Amino acid sequence: MLEVKNLKTYFFYDDKIIPAVDEVSFSLEEGSILGMVGESGCGKTMTALSITRLLPSRNCKIAEGSIVFNGIDLASLPEDELRKKRGSEISYVFQEPATSLNPVLRIEEQMKEVIFLHRKDIAAAKRDAFIVEQLTEVGIRNAQKKVKCFPHQLSGGEKQRVMIAMAMVTRPKLLIADEPTTALDVTIQAQIIVLLQELRQKFGVSILFISHDINVIGELADCVAVMYAGQIVEYAKAERLMRQPQHPYTQGLFECLPGAWAVKRSRLNVLCGEVPKAGCFPQGCRFHPRCPKVFDRCRKEMPALARQKENQEVRCWLYSGSEI
Amino acid sequence: MAILRLRNITKFYEINRNSFSLRPQRIKAVDNVCLTLTEGMTLGLVGESGCGKSTLAKIILKLIPPTSGEIIFKEKNITRLSESAFRPLRRQMQIVFQDPYGSLSPRLTVKDIIAEPLRSFGMPKIFMRPRIEELLIQVGLNSGHADRLPQQLSGGERQRVGIARALATSPRLVVLDEAVSSLDLSTQAQVLNLLVKLQQKYALTYVFIAHNLGVVRYVSDRVAVMLRGTVVEKGSTGEVYNNPLHPYTQLLLGSMPSLHKRLLRTRKKEAELPRKDERGTAADTSSACVFFSFCPKSRKECAEKNPVLKEVAPHHWVSCACIE
Ligand SMILES: Nc1ncnc2c1ncn2[C@@H]1O[C@H](COP(=O)(O)OP(=O)(O)OP(=O)(O)O)[C@@H](O)[C@H]1O
Ligand SMILES: Nc1ncnc2c1ncn2[C@@H]1O[C@H](COP(=O)(O)OP(=O)(O)OP(=O)(O)O)[C@@H](O)[C@H]1O
Ligand SMILES: [Mg+2]
Ligand SMILES: [Mg+2]
């Protein structure tokens, strides 16, 4: 369905090249959900943007790799054909709802435009009712009143849900959702989780779901990719990854969460150091300066993603002897 | 000692007020809320998305006026205080906003952003520079960040600039509206550690608004659960989490996403989730309990009378007709 191979997305500057996404490969089957986690700045959004080629600036380009979507390589598709796909077959929920809703149009007007363009099957007379129904579906209460609001009159979570509703009305085959549930309370998160699962069952929608909330990912996703410094460092079935994270980075990341056992006000674990900026990655394994289990080889050579038991893939020298 | 008291705060928003073609409508965002903040303690505020948390936060800081009700800050009624009379108090309360992207002006450097509140309270220039450096160090940044623009910072760094700005005037009360929600796990842990440390050092009072219930439990001494503009349950964190009495609180705590849920397939959609809003627009005016139409335990009397908060155990208040 979607097959991303060896994707490299770089920022080209006069004096340097910044690799925001480096050798990322994954595939997404019809009706499956891939979760993507990782610290801020490790390239999750850039990976997602690359798939639709909605890259932030002129100097940012896909340098290498292919993105095959239903047999067509999006990486080399002409812009106008890609634009058609973007609206109808691929939907995108952006990370910042505030910036992707038009501030001077009422919610109703924005939704009508999407429906007008992509849902010719809905008669003009039925559009109003359809919009209210779609908004109610994502848990917005009082939808009749809310459609008359401007984006700034909605709460953070309501804006986010309007975005989700807009992405779903087009009945896409691929839905890319970048942090779609951060501003939602857990009951509505649960509702969105159910809604997304329903979508994939009924319509076979495939979903790329980016989030910092590993609990949401754990519940929703079939497989999870952990990103670090522009690369996938671990990839596995959700259950497997949550129960037995192998990469020291994944392990460290999961330990940062205040769990049920967290003694109140005790210090929480943090990963020491910070994510290296794209463009100044260390030599060898990119995680080695922060890794508690670092040894000599890590400083010199970059490990490759190697397959372990149960199709778990890990990019780490610790496991280099045990691949199968 | 109580630092701030809210008495019967109610807030209506008006939409379509300046429209020729649309009828003006009122949205009830906060309904008769009473809360007390104790000095040096953290009040966690959780609840449905769109239930009025951010609105309440803005009312506390007098950024918007309540429709009715009183705000008492340090035994002084500040509800109708003029802006000039309020000025000396303003520096004692600060807010970190929900949106880390929108709340920092993109054209100002970090230094200028932090200097803004200092300048508005007339700090002489010569004290400014050292104070800014001190603040940056307090929040775990350094003077190297002072000349950067917000877009040159990572999400976590941006959020810390927001915190530094809030701390600039040495406030006594800080409202944190989803201050950590959009951060990755490691950065979130860093910011939480920082908040706890600062509170211990300066006996700050926090209002902590968030959707991640694990995080709220970790930082809060008291918790208030909101639904449709009202507080339905409040009490000490341990009481509310271990012995939730209101059916909505139970639903909320039961909806926390987890891998576990999927494995057990316990996520049942009808039982758990209020999908359709049967009450529609009646919600604002009806006299029924706010949770009536979704409540598994609702009785006839719930349709007629909205229950009031009752103290059912020491420091544990619930508004539910089913609880004696
Ligand atoms: N215009 C730009 N010029 C140079 N580098 C950039 C630019 N925009 C983004 N980057 C870099 O690209 C890398 C990947 O950023 P990306 O937005 O994909 O991170 P992310 O994983 O989505 O983080 P977050 O969780 O904060 O959303 C970062 O290191 C960032 O600094
Ligand atoms: N300026 C405004 N004009 C009209 N209605 C508004 C305005 N601001 C907020 N509202 C409405 O008031 C209600 C409460 O909004 P508020 O932002 O306080 O919610 P919240 O609890 O912070 O939600 P979230 O968790 O999603 O951020 C919402 O229904 C919202 O649509
Ligand atoms: Mg991102
Ligand atoms: Mg809010």
- The 3D shape of chain A can be described as globular
Give the strand order, joined by hyphens, for the main sheet of chain B: 6-7-8-3-9-10-12-11
User: What structural class do the secondary elements of chain B suggest?
Assistant: alpha/beta
CATH domain class of the largest domain in chain A = Alpha Beta
Beta-strand proportion of chain A: 15-25%
What proportion strand of chain B?
15-25%
Compute the CA-based radius of gyration of chain B.
21 Å
Rounded to the nearest angstrom, the distance between the terminal CA atoms of chain A is 26 Å
Which value, in Å, is the CA radius of gyration of chain A? Answer: 21 Å
Cofactors and ligands present? adenosine-5'-triphosphate, magnesium ion
How would you describe what is shown here?
The complex is a heterodimer of chains A (324) and B (324). Chain A has helices at 44-52, 79-88, 97-100, 107-118, 127-137, 143-146, 156-169, 186-203, 214-220, 238-243, 248-255, 296-300; strands spanning 2-12, 17-28, 33-37, 60-69, 72-73, 90-93, 174-178, 206-210, 223-228, 231-237, 306-307, 313-314. Chain A has 324 residues and is α/β, with parallel strands linked by helices. Chain A folds into two domains: 2-89 and 170-314, Rossmann fold (3-Layer(aba) Sandwich), CATH 3.40.50.300; 97-169, no CATH class. In chain A, β1 (2-12) and β2 (17-28) form a beta hairpin. The model of chain A has no long low-confidence stretch (mean pLDDT 87). By secondary structure, chain B is of the alpha/beta class. Chain B has helices at 53-60, 83-90, 110-120, 125-138, 155-167, 185-202, 213-219, 237-242, 247-254, 259-264, 269-272, 300-304, and strands spanning 2-15, 25-38, 42-47, 68-73, 76-77, 93-96, 173-177, 205-209, 222-227, 230-236, 310-313, 316-318. Chain B has an eight-stranded mixed sheet with strand order 6-7-8-3-9-10-12-11, sandwiched between helices. The longest helix of chain B has 18 residues, at 185-202. At the A-B interface, α6, α7, α8, α9 and α10 of A face α6, α7 and α10 of B. Bound molecules: adenosine-5'-triphosphate (ATP) (2 copies) and magnesium ion (MG) (2 copies). One adenosine-5'-triphosphate sits between chains B (13, 15, 27, 29, 49-55, 98) and A (153-158, 183).
